[in-house]
Amino acid sequence: EKGRSKKKDPLCKRQNNPMMTQISLFSRGAHSRSLDLWSLIASSAFTERVCHLQKSLRDQQPSTWSPSLCSARNPINYTATTALACHETSSGHSGFFSCLLCSEGDWWLAKSLSSGRKGYIPSNFVAQVDSLEEEKWYFKALSRKDAERLLLSSGNKVGSFLVRESETSKGAYSLSVRDSDSAHGDIIKHYRIRSLDGGGYYISPRMTFSSLPELIHHYKKGDGLCQRLTTPCISLVPQRPWAQDEWEIPRESLKLVKKLGSGQFGEVWMGYYKNNIKVAVKTMKEGSMDPDAFLAEANLMKRLQHNKLVRLYAVVTKQPIYIVTEYMANGCLLDYLKTEEGSQLNLPKLIDMSAQVAEGMAFIERMNSIHRDLRAANILVSETLCCKIADFGLARVIENEYLAQEGAKFPIKWTAPEAINFGVFTIKSDVWSFGILLTEIITYGRIPYPGMTNPEVIRNLERGYRMPCPDMCPGELYNIILKCWRNKPEERPTFEYLQSVLEDFYTSTEKQYEAEPQP
Is 282 flagged in the annotation as binding? Predict the structure, then answer.
């Protein structure tokens, strides 16, 4: 860090500490994009972060040997694996770093051995040399469902593949390959990679290999697999982590670029934070809501962090208040389903989107929270068709239930009868809304209860009416929807159950692994 002498720098006292790891970062050739880490470290954001954390650094240092730390006598080298860059490079430039605090968390404190500068490097940008993490096709602890989602995302093609750890057999691996057939279109097939007692791996016992890279190299020729292995699955570019101390930010650090729409509390914009991080910014209409309530919403969103919930980054606390979240390229699910691309989604993808929403709501359920406004308009879609729950404008942390204030507005067609009649919202009323959302998804954004007014919906619900099964909706899915609409809230399923049944909607009737390749 500039401006600090070595004499006063507490980090310098640890330069001779044996608990250090050496990191080597390399680009992948002239054609690749590499990360200029020190251009990031030198930025004001990183400098502020270093200043903030240096004060407590001594408390973070272990007083005794920990197995998670690495000895400088046996340094571990790392290589850059992520194609996210601030600058293009045309040469095989390498940078060498010494890790002062090892392998805990998303950011590692490192020191440049060439310049002597210190800063934080993102741990997910590096992999240990001569390890599987260095291979572009290795995705480690990726679930079967997420492997299918990744391989079916745009940019991948038939023959794209990845290797992941087996979810069911410790120490084993699975090979997932994108295939295609005339009946189902593009699908994912999985092969179990077994280990030999004496070391080595095989898919078919007639052909064994000493290492996984050797196995992958062989099956690039096909040899009985559904497809010849072509290119590794495209990795998701990791979002730049948001500094923990950048919560209340100045308005001047934000640049609003494009208006995306209007919400309950104001407008939503696409913009940039510090001119380089793309974000979504929700502005509050002055007088439409108490500022304290808005900040309470923001603090709730900050606590509820999950990969299926839109992440809150920061807030501007002075009027007009801004709330800054991650940017989702495809906008809200309701609008996306009506686009040319969205209207072409097949049934398995629609079911998968439903499962993603259920996963996010299962997390909210575990956190004893409710949403109160669950509908397709409040689900956002990323470029890779990842669905995340947004707009916690009505969400509240609860003990048992949240009593709606008199006169509060809520969307009738998505609202459970007990919430309409008595103003009582619970996680079970969210389950009812989820059933309505499922009809939106399966009909590509059709308005619920078509042709009915809100008063007609209320009267029909009191008589026990339920929307009929939409066209093209499988009977099994409609049965799930009807469970969400049970009259007694306690008889409705949990989101944990809904996530499980939707994720297994097809796999429960499919074989888990393909047969061994035949000669």
Answer: yes
